[in-house]
Amino acid sequence: MKRRFKKTLALIALVPILGWGQDYPSRPIRVVVPYSAGGSSDGPMRVIAQEMSKQLGQQMVVENKPGQGAMLGSAEVVKAPPDGYTLLLASNPNAISASLYSRLTHDPVEDFAPISLLASEQAVLLVNPSIPAKNLQEFIAYVKQRPGKLDYSSSGNGSAQHLFMAMFLSMTGLQMNHIPYKGSAQAVTDLLGGQVAAAMPGLAAMRGHIREGRARALAVTGAKRAGAAPEIPTMIESGLKGYELYVWMGILAPKGTPAAVIDRLHREFTTALRAPAVKTFMDGAAIEAVGSTPAEFGAFFREEKARWAKIIRETGARID
């Protein structure tokens, strides 16, 4: 009798879990993007969200909540009910901030449930056309002759743009001044206007500026040249051995979100990545779709946290 009673309780406990998978979603889903509109992660997420809205039969709404190295938006999501209706678009800053900031209200990695690593792209070292350097070695020589006199912009303290440049400067022994902005759009605007000499944003959003001559591309950050911009050499082939970094984006939910919901979202996101509209956008923007499992993304996220902790120690990067 006791055994039968326990079995009945176990079946009852499963009912809500099964219900989550069957009924979800029954209302719009909000995706918080902790970066400014128009950034390298914002555009792809909006294209994916449009496809997800069709697949799910419910609107997927993208909201930008930039600030504090992606921690402002992250803090909002970590406090949301773990019901699958509030998600976070994570990127490099979420792993970087875990080591860069000494005081955080939450753990950027452990306080979330991973869903999928969606995509990755290369960053590109850009200079204003007024800088005479035509390649990486010429730029290194140019900066070396002007220690501490040139500025570089980034989308904010603790951003991928900040740390990618910090690693470059550390490896070359160069001195430049970091000018953090509240988002990628203004950081790029001031690069194009000549207020700063250089920046290292994601390649996807910069291809138009490069083609039209508003910015000069010196090198990309991947192991091999980007298929959509094969004319730009890599940092490695330009003489900076061991420099290989990528901008990535993935989806997280608040910790405690039911496994059935995580599994449903994973299936839907990976399906959306294969949709023609999304694939066309990704290919045209030089972004590589990934679509990892929740377990794979969780392992990747922890590896990124450890990797950036090491880079921060080696480069001496700090919050300006």
Give an overview of the whole structure:
The protein has 320 residues and is an alpha/beta fold. It folds into two domains: 27-120 and 247-315, Bordetella uptake gene, domain 1 (D-Maltodextrin-Binding Protein, domain 2); 124-220, D-Maltodextrin-Binding Protein, domain 2 (3-Layer(aba) Sandwich), CATH 3.40.190. 42% of the residues lie in helices and 18% in strands. Strand 6 (151-154), helix 6 (160-172) and strand 7 form a beta-alpha-beta unit. Helix 1 packs parallel to helix 9 (259-273) and helix 4 packs across helix 11 (294-315). The longest helix is centred in the first third of the chain and has 22 residues, at 2-23.
Short note summarizing the structure:
The protein has eleven helices and eleven strands. With 320 residues, it is α/β, with parallel strands linked by helices.
Sum up the structure in keywords.
320 residues; alpha/beta; D-Maltodextrin-Binding Protein, domain 2; 2 domains; 11 strands; disordered N terminus
